[in-house]
Write a structure and sequence with these properties.
The complex is a heterodimer of chains A (222) and B (86). Chain A contains three helices and nine strands; from the N terminus they run E-E-E-H-E-E-H-E-E-E-E-H. Chain A has a six-stranded antiparallel sheet. Chain A has a three-stranded parallel sheet with strand order 2-1-3, with no helix packed on it. Helix content of chain A is 23%, strand content 30%. Chain A has 222 residues and is an alpha+beta fold. In chain B, helix 1 packs antiparallel against helix 2 and helix 1 packs antiparallel against helix 3. Chain B is built from three helices and no strands. Helix content of chain B is 55%, strand content 0%. Chain B is globular. Chain B is mainly alpha-helical and 86 residues long. The chains are: A alpha+beta (222), B mainly alpha (86).
């Protein structure tokens, strides 16, 4: 953390991290000049806007219903893919009931990665006007070091992309980068299907599962 | 209302159309083909059932039919023909 005249603004939930010099709690900002303040994590969209920092991307692009659960800023293109700032609101679903130490929990990074591949796909690989569903086939993750409530960026790279009669398939890599380090990495294979077809597939699968379950009970009771 | 023969023609036609989208070599369908050997995934079958609903006016799997009981193309035709008779 560069503390030479700068203060990193952090959500109050990160109380232990706020013991470090060079940090200031979001609740202490009232009436303060914003010069020299850097947006960390745990901040609401309003606080981010007040700091003239990137704000969360439109929530529909992340497939979230509540604005506080959006965890990234608007994705943009970079040399070999896309990038988006990590913007965690301390009231989001993965932080609000987490017994926190000083770091960002892995489950929050995993959800931020999911939001990144969803938002990038919605923005840069649009499916047209009909609503879609995203289906995860494979997801692997590596957490190399702690991510703290400081500025961080998610980098997204499409490794493969193909289309068939009923869906589009993506293989992609997401890296969480903070303070010069690739702190976490995700490898995902997912599909984008038309919602109408996905809903029907799910209905058919549920009916089959119910039939199998009923048969199993009949067998075990025989 | 469609006749049983028309139902069979409709099912075969829509399956053929779907297979054409997945590859250039589409076999002449006899009806004895097992659905899984045709390479129809569960998602493709979902699309097929939606298209059949549009064509014949109902979805038998919304009623009592279960997809796992349908092995062959003939089985699928029979499910729809029974639905017409019901």
């Amino acid at each position: 953390v560069d503390t030479s005249g700068q203060l990193v603004v952090v959500g109050d939930r990160f109380a232990e991290f706020l013991n470090h010099p060079g940090t200031i709690a979001a609740s202490q900002l009232a009436g303060r000049e914003t010069a020299g303040l850097v947006a960390g994590q745990g901040l609401s969209a309003d606080v981010l806007a007040g700091l003239a920092a990137p704000v969360p991307v439109r929530q529909e692009l992340t497939h979230k219903r509540l604005a506080k659960n959006v965890m990234i800023g608007e994705p943009y293109t970079v040399d070999d893919g896309y990038a988006a700032p990590l913007l965690l609101d301390e009231r989001c679903e993965t932080l609000e009931d987490h017994l926190t130490g000083q770091h960002i929990p892995a489950v929050a990074l995993t959800e931020a990665a999911r939001q990144t591949w969803t938002a990038v796909t919605e923005m840069f690989y649009p499916s047209g006007p009909r609503p879609t569903r995203f289906v995860i086939d494979e997801l692997s993750s590596r957490f190399r070091c702690f991510v703290f409530p400081l500025p961080a960026t998610l980098f997204y790279r499409v490794l493969a992309h193909e289309r068939d009669a009923v869906q589009r398939r993506f293989h992609a890599e997401i890296t969480v980068h903070q303070s010069g380090v690739d702190a976490a990495q995700f490898d995902v294979r997912f599909r984008v299907v038309l919602e109408k077809i996905g809903v029907k597939q799910e209905f058919l699968a549920a009916r089959q599962a119910l039939a199998r379950s009923t048969n199993d009970r009949e067998v075990s009771q025989a | 209302m469609l006749s049983p023969t028309e139902v069979r023609t409709t099912v075969h036609g829509l399956v053929t159309d779907l297979l054409r989208e997945t590859g250039p070599d589409v076999p002449e369908l006899t009806g004895t083909e097992e659905l899984h050997t045709l390479g129809l995934s569960s998602l493709a079958l979902a699309r097929l059932i939606l298209e059949l609903e549009e064509a014949v006016g109902f979805d038998p799997f919304e009623r009592d039919a279960v997809l796992s009981d349908v092995r062959s193309l003939n089985d699928l035709v029979t499910v729809y023909q029974r639905g017409l008779a019901a």
